[in-house]
Amino acid sequence: MKAVEKSTFESVWDALANTPEEAVNLKLRAQLMHEIARAVKETALKQEQAAELCGITQPRLNDLLKGMRSCEQYGVVKKSLGEIDAFRIQHRQQRKDVMGLIVRKGLHGKKAEDLIEDFCRQHDIKDTAKFTAMTLADLSTLHSGAIIGLGITEAQLNKWLEKRP
User: Where do the H-state alpha helices sit in 85-153?
Assistant: First the structure.
């Protein structure tokens, strides 16, 4: 009798998917459905209103909430939300870490860019250009309502913003 080969995976999404990107996509879709279900439950919205906000029909939302998740239904919701950037999701915590570091050190311009590139080398982030552009874009719109998870105070942010060129 031939031995059965066992495989281990970090998550059920990794086991179901053919690529790491597909695993991230599956996980995000499940999280999206969980958030939609939570929002419908916690708000006074009727399913009809929630479905309209999601760009789907009420019967489809009802099916989704009951667990009937067809590719077409996911596709409609995904299309209404736009394309999911797996790289952005994968490196979310690293972006938060480096943004907090930049604000705490009071860096702007070339010095901030150099720090991001060094951070990428230290943390083995392959697409340095994409990570740098994404982080700089996030820094350009940074405000006090978005500092949770950056490890900075509002006073530190304000000081950094005052010195922005």
Answer: 86-90, 92-105, 109-122, 128-140
pLDDT digits (tens, 9 = 90+) for 98-107: 999 999 999 9
> Within a 10 A sphere around the Cβ of 73, how many other Cβ atoms?
18
Query: Using CA atoms, how far apart are residues 134 and 45, in angstroms rounded to an integer?
Result: 35
What is the amino acid identity at position 117?
Answer: E
Encoding tokens for residue 62? 């009802």
Tokens of 137: 């874009």
Scanning the structure block, which residue is given the tokens 């719109």? Answer: 141
Q: How far apart are CA 21 and CA 27, in angstroms?
A: 10
CATH topology classification for 12-84: 434 Repressor (Amino-terminal Domain) (1.10.260)
State the pLDDT at residue 90.
84
Q: What residues does each domain of the chain span?
A: 12-84, 87-162
pLDDT at 42 over 80: no
Distance CA 14, CA 60 (A): 27
